[in-house]
Design brief:
Blueprint (H helix, E strand, L loop, with lengths): L1 H36 L2 H13 L3 H19 L7 H13 L3 H19 L7 H13 L3 H17 L9 H13 L3 H16 L10 H15 L21 H11 L5 H21 L1 H5 L6 E3 L16 E3 L2 H5 L3 H8 L1 H23 L3 H15 L14 E4 L18 E11 L5 E10 L5 H9 L2 E3 L1 E3 L2 E3 L1 E12 L3 H20 L7 H5 L5 H5 L7
Antiparallel strand pairs: 1-2, 3-6, 4-5, 4-9, 7-8
């Protein structure tokens, strides 16, 4: 009986083990599939938050598991893969692996085109992400090509929402400006204004960024070697191929040519200001209130008249100093605050324009008006005007990098200057405070600052001189391996000399007792003191 029962027990145990294994496999597959399918929005949100927190390295294995599970379940060309692939690309990009990110975005774009059509609008976001990675690796041709393709896709899909084309137009125009293609950027801004003109029932505020951009293209064409982007970053700098001499010569020549760019840009900025003045609507916002404002036409140019009112004039300073409760309520109104901030920005833009084109008196009046508008803003929303702000300076061409075989990893150097900024925005009394790693960039930086234009410091809205303003210029560079080794070797020799030099000094009496060697002794460094 025992011999007959034993095989049955073994068979039962084997069956139980096999069944348990199958159940585990099924549960594992079900959990993976459920992880990918159940609540995809929360999954995407969780992964995005992890990437934003700097935890991209931890989420990439999870995304790989999800992608593998979805591929096994739905196939390689399933639309279910698009979102995880895009998330994987974003995670890789955040880790600096832009080449792998480009591949991930490319796969997501390919699936969207195959399954939803060649020009599906759902691919635009991933095309932009891919373009950003191309920019990060320095492939500017592919970067601009991807940006142009995104605009083409947006244009083919704008029938659903005609104004959806505005954002791609503005984005491409800004990128054209970065690479120096001012004419192409101007065409994009012009197209945006035409799109708005064809839609009569739109908010005029949408036109303001395009008017600002249009003026900027004329500024950058007038000063082709200028740096006037306060948000410029070292890793995104696009360096022209021209020599430093050519850069400065072209900058100085264009500064003195015809005023066509000045006139066109001024008109665009005045139009933007007019739009924001109507938005602010001073007469309705503050009529019959303790701090009344009256519209005051102010010519934006001393030499020619302008019909554009550039800002309100405060007519009751005493009431402003002690505003009523109703006025305080008005100042807390978010729409009123936004309208006032936008109006102030438009006035300052026009004031900067006048200053850059050497019309400081017109600029001073505009800065004063901007200050008056700022007085109606809550204190927390006021902008600081205590220090100068760089508006324009000739681009500084960095020194030539050593050959690739002699390069060390990229570092960041700096030149720190001190100078006075006059009330007209020009610079005088430049001094070099400190440099690192050496002084090879000092001449270039000083020459650029000498021709720079600053928005001056403002006291109660009036431009004033600012003494001893400190300016820090940072620049990326590749150190030379051979030069670094040479400097380190020299440093070791100097250290050894400092430690051992005193012991090798000759006896003073010996020097005096041997006048025949006096001339030779004078050449020794220790006798110079």
């Amino acid at each position: 009986m025992k011999q007959m029962i034993r095989p049955n027990l073994v068979s039962q145990r084997c069956a139980v083990m096999i069944l348990f294994g199958l159940m585990c496999a099924f549960v594992s597959t079900f959990i993976s599939a459920a992880h990918a399918q159940v609540s995809p929005t929360s999954f995407v949100q969780a992964v995005t938050e992890s990437i934003n927190r700097g935890e991209a390295a931890e989420v990439i294995p999870q995304l790989d598991d999800v992608l593998q599970s979805l591929t096994d379940q739905f196939g390689r060309d399933s639309t279910e893969l698009i979102e995880p692939l895009a998330l994987r690309g974003k995670a890789l990009a955040s880790l600096g692996d832009h080449q792998s990110a480009i591949v991930a975005f490319d796969e997501a774009i390919h699936i969207a085109r195959v399954q939803r059509g060649l020009f599906t609008g759902t691919q635009i976001e991933n095309v932009y992400e891919q373009a950003t990675s191309y920019r990060a690796v320095g492939n500017y041709d592919k970067w601009i090509d991807r940006e142009e393709y995104a605009l083409e896709v947006a244009e083919r899909n704008k029938s659903e929402d005609p104004l959806s084309i505005l954002s791609p137009l503005a984005r491409l125009a800004e990128n054209y400006e970065i690479v120096g293609n001012h004419l192409a950027a101007r065409e994009m801004y012009g197209r945006g204004l035409r799109e708005l003109a064809n839609n009569v029932d739109v908010d005029e505020e949408l036109a303001v960024p395009f008017l600002f951009g249009l003026a900027k293209t004329h500024l950058n064409e007038h000063f082709p070697a200028s740096v006037n982007r306060p948000d410029a970053r070292l890793d995104l700098a696009v360096v022209p191929s021209r020599s430093t001499t050519d850069i400065y010569r072209q900058y100085e020549i264009n500064a003195a040519i015809s005023d066509q760019h000045f006139v066109i840009g001024k008109k665009a900025l005045e139009q933007a200001l007019s739009i924001r003045q109507k938005k602010f609507d001073v007469f309705e916002a503050l009529k019959a209130k303790s701090a009344a404002l009256e519209a005051l036409p102010l010519h934006s140019d001393d030499e020619s008249e302008s019909e554009t009112p550039v800002g309100p004039k405060l007519v009751d300073e005493a009431a402003l100093a002690a505003p009523t409760e109703k006025f305080e309520d008005q100042k807390r109104d978010p729409e009123f605050v936004l309208a006032a901030q936008n109006l102030r920005e438009a006035i300052v833009q026009l004031a900067d324009w006048q200053l850059i084109f050497e019309k400081p008196q017109s600029a001073a009046k505009l800065y004063t008006r901007a200050h008056e508008v700022q007085q109606v803003l809550p204190e927390s929303q006021s902008s600081s005007t205590n220090e100068p702000v760089l508006l324009l300076s000739p681009k500084i061409i960095p020194a030539k990098a050593p050959p690739e075989e002699d390069r060390l990893p990229q570092e960041v150097g700096f030149v720190k200057l001190s100078f006075d900024v006059r009330s007209n925005g020009r610079v005088k009394k430049i001094k070099t405070v400190s440099t690192s790693p050496g002084s090879n960039m000092v001449f270039r930086v000083r020459k650029s600052i000498r021709d720079a234009v600053f928005r001056p410091a403002l006291m109660d809205g009036a431009p004033v001189a600012f003494e001893n303003f400190e300016y820090l210029y940072q620049y990326p560079f590749f150190p030379s391996r051979s030069e670094r080794e040479k400097d380190e070797s020299q440093g070791v020799e100097d250290k050894n000399f400092d430690e051992d030099g005193a012991a090798s000094l000759p006896d003073a009496s010996a020097v005096v007792s041997e006048p025949t060697n006096l001339q030779e002794t004078k050449l020794q460094p220790w006798t110079l003191s």
